[in-house]
Amino acid sequence: MIMKYFTIIALLCLSCISCTMQNNLLQSPNGKIAIEYHAEKGFSVIYHSGRDKVKMMSLPEIGLKTSDTDDCFKLISSTPVTSVVDDYEMLTGKRRHCHNEANECTYRFENVKGLRVDLIFRVYNDGIAFRYHLPKTKEEIVVLDEYTAFAFTPGIKRWTQKFTVGYEGFYWPNTDGVADNEGREWSFPTLFQPSDSAFVLLTEANILRDNTGAYLTNAADSSIYKIKLSDERLICPSGWYSPWRVAIIGTLADIVESTLVTDVSEPCKIQDTQWIKPGLVSWIYWAYNHGSKDYQIVKKYIDFAADFDLPYMLIDWEWDAMGNGGNLNDAMNYCKEKNVTPLIWYNSSTAWIKAWGAPGPHNRLNAPENREKEFAWLEKMGVAGVKIDFFAGDKQETMEYCIDLLECAARHHLTVNFHGATVPRGWQRTYPNLLSTEGVYGAEWYNNESVLTKKAACHNATLPFTRGIVGSMDYTPCTFSDSQHPHITTHAHELALPILFESALMHWADKPESYLAQPKEVQDFISNMPTAWDETRLLSGYPGESVVMARRKGSTWYVAGINGKDESQKLALNLSSLTKQNSRVVLFEDSGAAKNPWKISYRKVRGMKDYITAQPRGGFVMVIK
User: Fold this and answer.
1) Pseudo-torsion of CA 604, 607, 612, 615, nearest 10°?
2) Using CA atoms, how far apart are residues 353 and 552, in angstroms rounded to an integer?
3) 457 — phi, psi (to 5°)?
């Protein structure tokens, strides 16, 4: 077994490798982040903030436990430090053009039977990443556990979400690492604040076919977060790589703007991507708390998409039982008549199944031959994409099923939205037809429980610093009316969310008449808002309190801010860093009046204040040209 002996021997031997780590130091290309080794304390991750040197965390344990042998592993060699430079384009995400640099070193361990384990370390300008490699052998190896642990200074602030397979929970700000008596298991991503100005976000990336997902546990020590694999036994083929363990490091702006999750992920595997089109979607479920069983309501949302020039309309669950004057074929024909492209929902049939009363259609995608037939049928009908729901967690079997779905969908020119699924781990680079993923406590929870009403503002101001960092987030934001439970966020707060919450498929979930009741300027914003961005910047904010973010599409900047508090506050912004002083601004704010909640004004950047005063649970949006 590669047990704790692996960790101990690794730490004892690394001090001898001065030829590859000068002064036992592996630094980022810009010198701001470093991994230091100390013979007694192990690895420390250091961040240089101006003149200050901050210890962000340590790695007290590193290693794998396998079923191969109980012999300990010894460090046999390490490679020279090499430079990693990557430059690539994204169809979705925070920015279109991504560039990254890192320094890499591989440490090689071996036991008496000749089994080797490589530990590959990279230090980027915005964080660190490492993974394990089992080189080629004659037989498969079974991984039973991973020892990787991240240790933080006790008492620092952290934002953690309890682990559930759907990743639908609130991020809890705390300093003791203990939520209650229900266990200490936490979802990725997780945010830590080791100092006043320096943060660490932990996650994982680049899950491949032979990988399982993971989460964190601090059951043994509230300040030490250990990797916990979702599978208890993982059969690893010859030449196996683990996912990357990722720590994004720096200021809040560094973290929000980072693309490290896709930087370490596999390059795009789809040769022709011209058919992949991000866009806006009309969505039926939220306003009616039901699927697409009623043809007349389906028609209303097709009309809404046509009236607002939205490219897509999502035909949600129960479309196989559609009635009240029409069926699926009628809906497809009506979409063609209105020049709206349909998307369509499927049950993954892995977690919530027909026998338990789950909505259909069922069991159409599980078998490879059925999946090919179904997706070919959709392609022939002119469907642009699929929303696939209710997955069974992060285990290797589910991860492989997701990859099968993405690859089959790509063969038939279908985009994908994973719902009721795990959080993004870099697949949006490898399979750019993956346009969005849920994995968030989103607006649909207004249908389910009353708790979101009071928590939404703070929750919304936390997500851009946590879940929103790792990829598209299908929150289904911007609803002005109420669903089963009311919302008390303001109209301008709601309008800001589609900018703050990146999703290449942005679902407008409210009733059409609610959007039609808004001023023409708001309707135009809804019709024209981009869903894929050229650049993203954080202008100000703090988790749970506020956030101001700017995203650019072409020469136009969209700036959005929200107040996560129950009292008014000033939201800082610096528009001069974005554009010229004579640029024109359309500003959407809250008026504070019940009958006319909007305050819409036209200005120039020159003369604007460096803050916006936001009402309690309020917000603002600027469109700058």
Assistant:
1) -80
2) 42
3) -60, -50
As a whole number of angstroms, the distance between CA 75 and CA 78 comes to 8
Tell me: the pLDDT tens digits for 481-519? 999 999 999 999 999 999 999 999 999 999 999 999 999
pLDDT at position 6 is 41
- CA gap 496, 560 in Å, rounded: 5
* Cross-strand bridge partners of residue 203: 246
Widest CA span in the chain: 78
Q: Give Cα separations from 327 to 7, 283, 300, 557 (angstroms).
A: 61, 17, 14, 42
Q: What is the dihedral of CA 54, 157, 199, 213, to 10 degrees?
A: 120
Distance CA 181, CA 485 (A): 29
The 3-state DSSP class for residue 174 equals strand
Q: Which two structure tokens, joined as six digits, stand for 351?
A: 């977690």
Q: Tell whether the torsion through CA atoms of 285, 288, 290 and 295 is positive or negative.
A: negative
Strand pairing class (415-418; 535-542): unpaired
The pLDDT of residue 344: 98
Query: CA-to-CA distance for 148 and 198, rounded, in angstroms?
Result: 22
Measured between alpha carbons, how far is 557 from 503 in angstroms, rounded to an integer?
17
Burial of 185 (0-12, 13-18, 19+ CB in 10 A): middle
Distance (Å, rounded) from C-alpha 373 to C-alpha 84?
42
Question: Which pair of structure tokens corresponds to residue 475?
Answer: 């929150």
Q: Which amino acid is at 169?
A: G
* pLDDT tens sequence across 583-593: 999 999 999 99
DSSP string, 462-486: HGGGTGGGSS---------S--SS-
Q: Does 189 sit behind a cis peptide bond, omega within 30 degrees of 0 on the bond before it?
A: yes
- Residue 94, both tokens: 């925070």
- Helix axis angle, 328-338 relative to 295-307, nearest 10°? 20
Burial (CB count <10 Å: 0-12, 13-18, 19+), residue 322: buried
Find the length of the chain. 625
Cβ atoms of 204 and 243 closer than 8 Å: yes
Average pLDDT over residues 181-200: 92
Contacts of 396 (CB under 8 A, 6+ apart): 210, 211, 212, 230, 231, 234
CA distance 120 to 115: 16
Alpha-carbon dihedral 222, 227, 233, 234, rounded to 10 degrees: 170
